[in-house]
Design goal:
heterodimer; A: mainly alpha; two-stranded antiparallel ribbon; B: alpha/beta; Rossmann fold; 6-stranded mixed beta sheet; 4-stranded antiparallel beta sheet; ATP-binding (chain B); ABC_transporter-like_ATP-bd (chain B); transmembrane transporter activity (chain B)
């Protein structure tokens, strides 16, 4: 004889109470942690808002720019918002967004309790996390956008952001419950790349032809917040109603990905984070390559890297966005006149290019046997793996320089100066791909994200550090009003020396003599 | 060996193709399991036994063919299916802050079992976990965690039990007791499907055996299959 089965909510409550019964923290300790986190967030928001206000004031006082800005700041902010939303959609689609931990998959999902009741808490948790993060990130923007921010204005921005974030989570969850998981990410990526490419093409054409400036976007209407909140509510309601349709295998797979990604994020291991977010079965290529022109081991490595990169549309798209970021900042009215802002945008864009270019090397790092298949020494195979990154980052940096320099006096010098950073960025991509795993057996330090090995922060920037150092002459050119032949020569020499040194370090770390 | 009177097939697969990303891992499978019968699944490592079991319980989509439970297409999203089918596959995981006993109570209460405390206490004793039932999973040995996962099958009602290598990580005594327990369960009318590499376990539990292979799937008598096992 049976009694009433537990409902999903009762199952969650049972688990929560059993867990709470042996929690080794007191209520006071938990409140203390909450207070400390709130203070940390408030300080972070204050610092970021101050920095943004400072940038805005600098834009107003900036002198003659080294580039030709044509875009109003509002348009650039709108493009950045599209890119950020696309990034969020990609993450939500890849992570579920609704998922089950392995334990929940093993002990909750086989119960007869409705999936809706079991998973409602998970959907609420992911919605709160995304909304909370979006609100915290938008708060400094809301505070810094105007000279005298009003309470109402800030509230509208925050409510609109919260509503938009909740609507995105709801839409992704609805998509998941209808069995279309994994289809939003390519769409969002394509939209992001399309917007970036069109924006760059348009602003470059305007700068070159001297056509009319792009009109500034109207300020954010208050109705946006209402519309966003209005869209979020039905989407979340429909998503909750569809939770019963989610299968255990799908939830378990999404949970494994989410755990992998979360562990990588709190360990500051961006290489593993990237793997977690792209860990899907790759599609079989439409056309098999015959590598007919390959006649030696060195060429085989290069041809293999080229094939790996060309079969990864994500990384090709990333390279296009890498060109767009510095060009858009350089063409933005006010921002383009700030040398540090343009240089910072170059660093962001070229870092993206270096990460994309390192895709084949990261695959080789994950499968060391690949490099042992061919009769090449460690230095030989490492140098061979630098060829494709060098070609890609040279293309990206040269295109950046050309598009930034067009409509100015020295487009070819800009092109050459930016392209001359390529050896450093190519070495950066290999340094990042082959950086050592975190040493969890060694000493550890306590951080707000938990315990991390000593040197985790240094590992986080390995790769990018070489690129940043290698791009210092570009900063000098921006500060002094433009590139010169001397700066170009210095840039090339500095970049080649730095790149060679970094490559030698990678070879030594991989166990070969440099 | 069996005492069931109901001969209506509980689980039926016809031309069932199983695999990943459109690639079958073994030859198509036809099987019928009636209440009170136990089907052993044998094959070499990588032959597709686990993939087949996961497809039978709806955790993987079939690449082709059909699989039905109680006359209806298998859909693990249906509460009725989960009510009737208990399985322990290769997905052993535990809530880190729930004790072994609490895991079993959650399962028993989740299925509406009357007097769950007594049922759980009996299974805890049966599986030799009486001393360790109130320990957290991290404090249990690998074999004790395996016993805990298997005990969950018996603290709830089920018409079909699906187990992937239940003998794995168990000592010889526990293997023998589990085999006897499953045989009793089968004789009480429960249908059982299990993958296995242990000849004695196979002889004790199975009425019928399915040999899974890339080229073909064959039905064997348990005695024959037990002799074949060492050659796989």
């Amino acid at each position: 004889m049976l009694e009433a089965e537990l409902s999903g909510a009762q199952v969650r409550r049972f688990t929560r109470r059993a867990t709470a019964a042996r929690a080794d923290t007191t209520l006071a300790e938990r409140l203390g942690d909450l207070w400390a986190n709130l203070v940390t967030i408030a300080i972070g928001v204050g610092v970021l808002a101050g920095a943004l206000s400072s940038v805005r004031e600098s834009m107003a006082l900036a002198g003659a720019p080294a580039t030709v800005p044509v875009l109003p700041a509002g348009v650039t902010v709108a493009i950045a918002a599209v890119l950020a939303i696309a990034g969020l959609v990609v993450c939500l689609d890849r992570l579920g967004p609704v998922s089950s931990t392995p334990a929940a998959a093993a002990w909750w999902l086989p119960l007869p309790a409705g999936r809706g009741g079991l998973l409602r808490g998970e959907l609420a948790r992911i919605t709160s996390a995304v909304v909370g993060t979006a609100v915290v990130l938008s708060l400094p923007l809301a505070l810094a956008l105007t000279d005298a921010p009003s309470v109402l204005g800030v509230a509208v921005v925050l409510a609109g952001t919260a509503g938009s974030a909740a609507a995105l989570v709801g839409a992704a969850a609805v998509n998941q419950t209808r069995g279309r998981s994994g289809r939003l990410a390519p769409l969002a990526g394509a939209v992001a790349v399309g917007v970036a490419v069109v924006a760059v093409a348009a602003c470059t054409a305007l700068a070159v032809t001297g056509g009319a400036d792009v009109p500034a976007l109207p300020s954010v209407p208050a109705g946006w917040a209402l519309a966003a909140l209005g869209a979020a509510v039905p989407l979340v309601v429909v998503a909750v109603a569809g939770l019963d349709r989610l299968g255990a295998a799908q939830l378990r797979a999404a949970g494994a990905t989410a755990q992998y990604a979360a562990a990588s994020a709190v360990s500051l291991d961006t290489r593993e984070l990237g793997r977690a977010l792209t860990a899907r079965r790759p599609r079989a290529p439409r056309r098999a390559r015959r590598f007919g022109r390959v006649s030696g081991a060195w060429q085989a490595v290069v041809a293999g890297d080229r094939a790996a990169l060309s079969r990864s549309p994500w990384h090709v798209g990333q390279a296009l966005v890498a060109v767009a970021v510095p060009v858009l900042v350089a063409r933005t009215d006010g921002l383009g006149a700030l040398p540090l802002a343009v240089w910072g945008a170059c660093l962001v864009g070229w870092s993206l290019a270096a990460v994309a270019a390192g895709h084949p090397a990261r695959q080789a790092q994950a499968l060391p046997a690949l490099d042992r298949l061919l009769p090449l020494s460690t230095p030989g195979v490492t140098v061979a793996r630098a060829v494709v990154p060098l070609v890609l980052v040279t293309t990206v940096t040269a295109l950046t320089g050309l598009l930034v320099g067009l409509a100015g006096d020295t487009p070819l010098l800009w092109t050459g100066l930016c392209a001359a950073t390529a050896p450093a960025w190519a070495a950066a991509s290999l340094r990042g791909a082959f950086r050592p795993e975190m040493d969890w057996a060694g000493p550890v330090v306590s951080t707000p994200m938990g315990v991390l090995p000593v040197g985790a922060g240094a590992g986080f920037v390995q790769g990018v550090d070489v690129g940043v150092l290698g791009s210092l002459p570009v900063a000098a050119a921006l500060v002094t009003g433009g590139p010169t032949p001397v700066l170009l020569a210095v840039q090339l020499l500095w970049s080649v020396l730095l790149g060679a040194g970094a490559l030698a370090l990678v070879v030594r770390r991989r166990g070969g003599r440099s | 060996m069996t005492n069931t009177t109901d001969r209506t097939p509980l689980l039926r697969a016809e031309g069932l193709e199983v695999g990943y990303a459109g690639e079958p891992v073994c030859a198509p499978v036809d099987l019928v399991v009636e209440p009170g019968r136990a089907l052993g699944v044998v094959g070499a490592n990588g032959a597709g036994k686990s993939t087949l079991l996961q497809t039978l319980v709806g955790l993987l989509e079939p690449l082709g063919g059909t699989v039905e439970f109680d006359g209806r297409e298998v859909d693990e999203r249906q509460a009725d299916f989960r009510r009737d089918v208990a399985c322990v596959l290769d997905d052993e995981a535990f809530f880190p802050s729930l004790t072994g006993r609490e895991h079993l109570l959650l399962t028993a209460r989740g299925h509406g079992v009357t007097d769950p405390e007594s049922v759980v206490a009996a299974e805890v004793a049966e599986f030799g976990l009486a001393e360790r039932a109130d320990a957290l999973p991290s404090q249990l040995s690998s074999g004790q965690r395996r016993r805990l996962a298997l005990a969950a099958v018996f603290v709830r009602p089920a018409r079909l039990v699906v187990l992937d290598e239940p003998e794995r990580r168990l000592d010889a005594g526990m293997r023998a007791r589990l085999a006897q327990r499953l045989a009793r369960h089968r004789d009480d009318g429960v249908a059982i499907v299990f993958a296995c590499h242990d000849a004695d376990f196979l002889r004790a539990v199975a009425d019928d055996v399915l040999l899974v292979d890339e080229e073909e799937t064959r039905r064997l008598a348990p005695e024959v299959a037990a002799d074949v096992l060492p050659t796989l």
